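Exam revision sheet. Question 4 asks you to relate a sequence to its structure. Input first:
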Amino acid sequence: MHGNSTASGADARVKPLDYRLVAPGICIVATSYGLARYAYGLFLPVFREVFDLGDRLLALTAAASYASYFLVTLAGIYLSARVGPRLSVLLGGLAATLGMALIAGATVPWMLMLGVAVAGVSPGLAYTPLSEIIVTLVSAPRRKGIYAIINSGTSLGVMLSGPVAILMGESWRMAWAIFAGFGLLSTLWCVAILPPVSARNSGEFGQFDWRWMTTGARGRLFAIALLIGIATSI
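Answer key, structure tokens:
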């Protein structure tokens, strides 16, 4: 998480949300990761049959989700610094909702691929500012615990989408419409509870130095995180 400097100034006067942030936080993570990104794989059999897709197109569609996520995550760091975390969460949640709605209404393969790609944008916008939100709006003693609980939202989303995929396989459009509705409600709930928080000074990103990240203990941590990311991607 970012340092405590983000909680200084005007933002320090914002009343801590603490556990009021947990439920909407879990729901937005469940939306952006558990549903918008990971639920696609659970519906591969029905997508293969309905759209007459081979392995190559199914894989390319999944890759589109990861590509959009990667690119927007990089951009999301800068976007959150300029527009503030609240708006970033809103944009991410709406991307998840729109993408899942496109999947629900897809009639041709390119619409399915577009929906998966748009939904894949969501975590890069909605999840990226969460650490800053917690540092700014949660009391210091509770930050680690609340951050860990909110992160469990991914598991919640996958846990919910699995039974839905099994029970509503033939009614997959309705399933994705339900996912989109859940995403919209989660987004509105999260944005409603978040007070406006000032965007960080964009100048701090202009002074970013890769050498700072790759020296000493930071370099070892960065290398471990990179290896874990590669392993889990497989």
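Marking note for examiners. Residues 55-83 form the longest helix (29 residues).
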